[in-house]
From TrEMBL:
Membrane topology classification: Multi-pass membrane protein
Protein name as catalogued: Iron complex outermembrane receptor protein
One MF annotation (Gene Ontology) recorded for this entry: siderophore uptake transmembrane transporter activity
UniProt keyword Ion transport, yes or no: yes
Positions of the TonB-dependent receptor plug domain: 56-166
Keyword line: Cell outer membrane, Ion transport, Iron, Iron transport, Membrane, Receptor, Signal, TonB box, Transmembrane, Transmembrane beta strand, Transport
Compartment(s) where it occurs, according to its Swiss-Prot or TrEMBL record: Cell outer membrane
Signal peptide extent: 1-22
Coiled coil: none
Family to which the UniProt record says this protein belongs: Belongs to the TonB-dependent receptor family.
Principal subcellular localization: membrane
Organism of origin: Sphingomonas jinjuensis
Entries under InterPro entries matching the protein: Beta-barrel_TonB (IPR000531), Beta-barrel_TonB_sf (IPR036942), Plug_dom (IPR012910), Plug_dom_sf (IPR037066), TonB-dep_rcpt-like (IPR039426)
Length: 802
């Protein structure tokens, strides 16, 4: 508590000392070129959402103002959850717990979308990301200027090889022209403490300015035992040359460590409830469960080898018996502990230059280094005697083991490292009504992945902590090096004829994946995805009176990923050899159109879309996730999706704004799953794709008169399936969040702008399943792949300088 009290005290001192006003939203306006990016600046201070006016496709932008209305530290993904077609789920109140975080657009899951920060690729943001990092680690949420969602097709220049179903572009704030010190301190449920501070230098002369910021979050889990914490630092330096351009350098650092929540099944929920979790506070109980399981497994194996007889059988763990402790039905009901650790450095330099009155160039070079570890303390892999402890001392045989084991538990990790570097360069020629752009992206990425086991003890307390990077492994199951070389280019042209805007172009890509196995029996080899012509066209017609029609068509391809646990390398060598020459990358063709209307304080948008998705690749899970069996990669044919999206925002009066959205999605498999020989494996044709609600409706009321500010939002989602045959689903739910606060205005001195805010998440305290598919999907039946949503939680924030 001393450390946490110091954090809050330091934040409060900085708050009172801060005297400069916040950077206005006009400082954060973004390029609205249709071909090079989707980001659009709000047209008036205080806008909740900008509905993409002037764009030839379905686009919406959420500004920094809207992020400020959420609890500090909240993921920007949660801020865009209210947009039509966006399905966002997380098991924590902040939406930042990565194992649980999932986002999908129009039925396309997270690893089929594209994500960028200031143009720099973030990969597909999946857990255990092989080619990027999550936005919650890439930038502190207070340093975001805007988040733009293109539900159907991102811009041609987007640096992504996975954006089949749309893109999400994050733009960080620019340094302020004025010296500024902003800070906030938050305290709330589960002993949550969040502190943030940012120092802006202001213009130091000649257009040189920058900022340095730091954020810290620590919170106890809302159920079970354990914590989730993060340290982050962002720095940005800009040299502005006026009309001639600018040079921007940035460095971002994150160290995130989080104890996991237990994955649930309906069976576990029925027996133990939604609050069932890992037993990280009771190591002896975890040992007992593991010993019982191993006694059961050994007895079954003995009987199978002896015609059902158990005569002469000796249990590997004496005194443990064969019955689980009261309240536990299986070994998977609760593990001792699990965690995710990620440490990232992301840096780069952007040159933005006006070479001639008509020719400009933007070039960004970047580098990203990651070290990560996902851990499970597992009853499936007992520790052998002689394995080393964390201090390097050999572990002796347990006094209760007849099998020569040191412990019934083992510490299993999946270890990651990423070293990737790349460059994005874009040339633009503006000649009156026409804008021609040509650009390219190159990236070289080395991803190392290993699975190792570390020794656990048999004692009153555990000898290893899940939030520490481990050492002294006693076994390496596999260790692979995965190299990915990405080359992408685009050509785009936009013709603005006043009432009519036409744009079109194409992109091409080649992605080479190489697997080199150092240890183990997984895959080594090479595979490539290539298509040099993926077209995109769009049209915008301004009807007058603030109304416009838009339509677009886009073709996209998703490249293969290089990993031991996902993609074509996540199988056996024989399996890879069989598919290497015939496996086709996933493809999508998207057509959409709609109408937008803007009149005084009203913005309306209505869109319809149709998607033809082919060569859909699915990895079927094999056994409990903790066992680590290689998944089976299958080409399950096509998917047909169509739907409609409505959004409206209305400024009733200057302080009061209303927002609402509705989306309908019909996405079904077009084919049954068959073997290479044509044998029917699963009759999936006509079934709804997993984790895709048919109906979503969101609404929000925002009030801000300069002093008093408040927000209330509701989110409805219909049921979602978590089996391919649609025999298992989670029910629909309605969630409500709310906040209210007050800021000091016109008081002068150091108190000017000081604000206090209270917020509540899940106001109606709904008990529900949030994330599904954490351990993948199965064809049918129950599966331990669900996470419970967080209950009602409250937070109080004191802040200054925003």
């Amino acid at each position: 508590m001393t450390y946490r009290t110091w954090l809050l005290s330091a934040a409060s001192i900085i708050l009172v000392a801060s005297a400069a006003d916040a950077q206005t939203i006009s400082d954060q306006a973004q390029d609205t070129a249709v071909s090079s990016g989707d980001a659009a600046a709000p047209d008036a201070a205080g806008d909740v959402v900008v509905l993409g006016f002037g764009q030839t496709r379905q686009v919406q932008t959420v500004s920094a103002i809207d992020m400020e209305r959420l609890t500090p530290g909240t993921s920007p993904l949660k801020a865009i959850a209210k947009l039509p077609g966006v399905n966002f789920q997380s098991a924590d109140a902040f939406g930042a717990y990565e194992w649980s975080t999932r986002i999908s657009l129009r039925g396309f899951n997270q690893n089929q979308l594209g994500f960028t920060l200031d143009g720099v690729p973030l990969g597909d943001m999946s857990y255990g990301n092989v080619n990027g990092l999550h936005i919650s680690r890439a930038v502190i949420s207070e340093n975001l200027a805007s988040t733009t969602v293109a539900q159907g097709a991102g811009a041609l220049a987007t640096a992504s090889t996975s954006n089949l179903g749309g893109t999400i572009q994050f733009v960080s704030r620019k340094p302020s022209d004025e010296a500024d010190l902003a800070a906030s301190g938050t305290y709330g449920s589960n002993d949550t403490i969040r502190a943030f501070v940012r120092a802006d230098s202001g213009d130091l002369g000649g257009g040189l300015k920058g900022y340095l910021s730091y954020g810290h979050l620590t919170t106890d889990k809302w159920k079970g035992f354990g914590s989730q914490r993060q340290h982050q630092a962002n720095a940005k330096l800009v040299k502005d040359f006026g009309d001639r351009g600018s040079i921007t350098a940035f460095v971002d650092f994150s160290d995130r460590r989080e104890n996991d929540y237990q994955d649930l099944s309906y069976d576990i929920i029925a027996r133990r409830g939604l609050r069932s979790d890992n037993i990280s506070d009771n190591y002896p109980l975890a040992l007992q469960i593991a010993k019982v399981y191993q006694n059961q497994a050994a007895r079954s194996a003995f009987a199978a080898a002896n015609n059902g007889s158990t005569t002469g059988f000796v249990a590997p763990w004496t005194g443990a018996g064969f019955a689980f402790p009261s309240g536990f039905g299986t070994v998977d009901d609760a593990y001792y502990d699990a965690a995710g650790l990620r440490r990232d450095w992301l840096g780069g330099v952007t040159f933005d230059a006006k070479l001639t009155p008509v020719l400009s160039v933007v070039s960004t070079s970047y580098y990203h280094h990651n070290k990560g570890q996902g851990s499970w303390i597992t009853p499936y892999s007992p520790t052998p005697a002689g394995a080393l402890g964390p201090d390097g001392t050999a572990l002796a045989v347990s006094s209760t083991s007849t099998a020569g084991l040191a412990s019934p538990l083992g510490y299993r990790t999946t270890e990651y490292s990423i070293d990737r570097a790349g460059n994005l360069t874009r040339l633009a020629i503006d000649t009156g009504a026409n804008r021609l752009e040509i650009g390219g992206w190159y990236e070289s990425n080395t991803f190392n992945q290993a699975r190792r086991f570390y020794g656990m003890n048999d004692g009153a307390t555990a000898n290893r902590r899940a939030l520490d990077f481990q050492s002294n492994a006693y076994r390496t199951q596999f260790d692979g090096k995965y190299d990915t070389e990405t080359l992408q280019y685009f050509v785009a042209d936009t013709l603005d004829l006043g009432a009519l805007t036409l744009n079109g172009g194409w992109k091409g890509m080649r992605v080479r994946n190489q697997a080199t196995l150092r240890t183990g029996s997984l895959v080594a080899g090479r595979i490539e995805a290539r298509d040099w012509f993926l077209p995109q066209v769009g049209v915008l017609f301004r009807l007058g009176g603030g109304a416009e029609l838009f339509a677009s068509y886009t073709a996209n391809m998703r490249a293969f990923v290089s990993s031991a646990t996902s993609g074509p390398f996540a199988t056996t060598q024989a399996g890879f050899n069989a598919i290497r020459l015939t496996l086709k990358p996933e493809r999508s063709k998207t057509a959409e159109g709609g109408i937008r209307l803007r009149s005084n304080g009203l913005q309306l948008s209505a869109a319809g879309y149709y998607v033809d998705f082919s060569n859909r690749l699915l990895s079927f899970s094999n056994g409990a996730g903790i066992i680590g069996n290689p998944p089976t990669l299958n080409n399950v044919g096509g998917v047909r999706s169509y739907g409609a999206e409505l959004a409206a925002t209305y400024r009733v009066a200057q302080p009061l704004t209303l927002f609402g959205s509705y989306s309908y999605t019909k996405a079904t498999y077009r084919d049954d799953v068959r073997s290479a020989a044509g044998v029917l494996l699963q009759p999936t044709k006509g079934k709804t794709i997993v984790d895709t609600p048919e109906h979503m409706a969101k609404g929000e009321v925002v009030y801000d008169d300069g002093r008093l500010f408040a927000r209330a939002g509701g989110d409805y989602m219909s049921k979602r399936y978590f089996t391919y045959l649609n025999d298992q689903s989670v029910a629909g739910r309605v969630l409500v969040d709310a906040s209210i606060g007050y800021r000091l205005k016109n008081v002068g001195g150091i108190l000017e702008g000081l604000a206090i805010e209270g917020s509540v998440t899940n106001l109606n305290d709904r008990k529900y399943v949030s994330t599904i598919g954490t351990n993948g999907y199965t064809a049918s039946g129950d599966n331990q792949t669900l996470l419970a949503g967080a209950p009602r939680q409250w937070f109080v924030t004191l802040r200054r300088g925003f």
